[in-house]
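Reply to dn_fold:

You asked what the input looked like. This is it:
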Amino acid sequence: MFVNSTLCYLVHDDSYLMLHRTKKEHDMNKDKWIGVGGKCEFGESPEDCVKREVSEETGYILHSFDFRGIVTFVYKDVTEYMYLFTSSDYSGEPHDCDEGELTWVPKKDVPELPIWEGDKVFLKLLDEDSGFFSVKLVYDDAGNLLYGGKQ
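and this is what came back:
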């Protein structure tokens, strides 16, 4: 099965807006800290999806954003292509998220949170501002990172 999704890190004062996934039952991201985003709906481009997902999950409206890379996740019988964005150009009033708690976290502290091991690979590339990149992350059925590297 193939899945297309987006992930966006909103930036403010050298911090990322992080979502602590605590509210949904049967959530593969349960108790993890991630950026905001989700699965692309039929007919959506990655850009359409990231704008919709950020608005739905946070209340913020993206005015512009940077397409930073593609992350290919391989887990169980799924290959997921995640389109990774950052933005510091947004407005609106934040609202509660039905998937967890939204918190501004200093970038330097994010790797110390309970995040997916593979997220550290692309977060490092974002931090290094290494230009557009492609990363492949392979997980086993228990969620252990088997491979994570830049392509």
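The radius of gyration is 14 Å.
Hope that clears it up.
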